Input
Amino acid sequence: MLKPTGTVLLSIGLAAATGCAANTSGSTTQTCSDIVAQDLVPSPSWQGTVFTVVLENKSQADIFGNKDAPFINGLMKDNAVAAGYRDNLVHPSEPNYIWMVAGENFGILDDEAPATHHIDSQSHLVDQLEMQGLTWKAYMESMGTACGLESKYPYEPKHDPFVYFDDVNGWDGTKFMPSQRCKEHVVDYSEFDKDLAANTLAKYVFITPNMINDMHDGTVAQGDAWAAKEIPKILGSDAFNKGGVLFLTFDEGSNQKDDPPMIVISPNAKRGYTSNTSYNASSYLKTVQKILGTQPLPCNTTADTVQTMDDMFTVPLDAVKKTATP
Output
């Protein structure tokens, strides 16, 4: 049974910018509403997996048209690009990742490990997915042991939003007791190939390359080479081709424009399309929620004003009513 949610942030650090000038005006500490089960399931057009791959600290001008990123530019030309996409004006990396799965940053404005930031919320995306009976899994490159709560370079928990939530990481108020839930759902990226081969990919998949391959410490060419090797595995899977979608994005821009690339890749995406509509990480999350049939943005008191990314697709995103079981 889900306990009442009132989100509590037990410790808040100071801003520390990495990779871009820190505009932190978007920071929020809103109290989340309790999540409510929805009488919805993904529509027949969306029977595949919702994939997200997050790279690091680049603006659109750093990637689009860059000769060192031929693979990513090919994806851009063949799919839908959100040219109006912006981060949510929180920095450095960690708050952006948390926003992608919760719709706010809980006041966090640094890259400290979960031992510093204990988020007591049961209204983030994976709680919603489980309430709806949907599966999820996060694959973290170079993490090693599942549910990594500490730095193990080139794995860094600041790029792994799931381990900051107490109901995932097993924080009991004094120490971490990593739960089976965390160990089974937040795993090393080496598990991805096994799940792909076994055709057991979850309905929602979040992938973070390590600090070199995500372009944080590596070059654009290194990140593009990683993408060229790994992303075709997704694009060749049934989980993608039978009504799936891949959001390939960056956590934040590399300058004050806060304009990270966002490419939407799907059999249902508009080919060669560029959207100039203003979107951000709340739009991305609400789009994921719309496809999967979960409650929209329970940690945002103005959720109704957030646009979903409908114009980038050829079919409706809306989940449909569950059919009664005879």
The two ends are 27 Å apart (CA to CA).
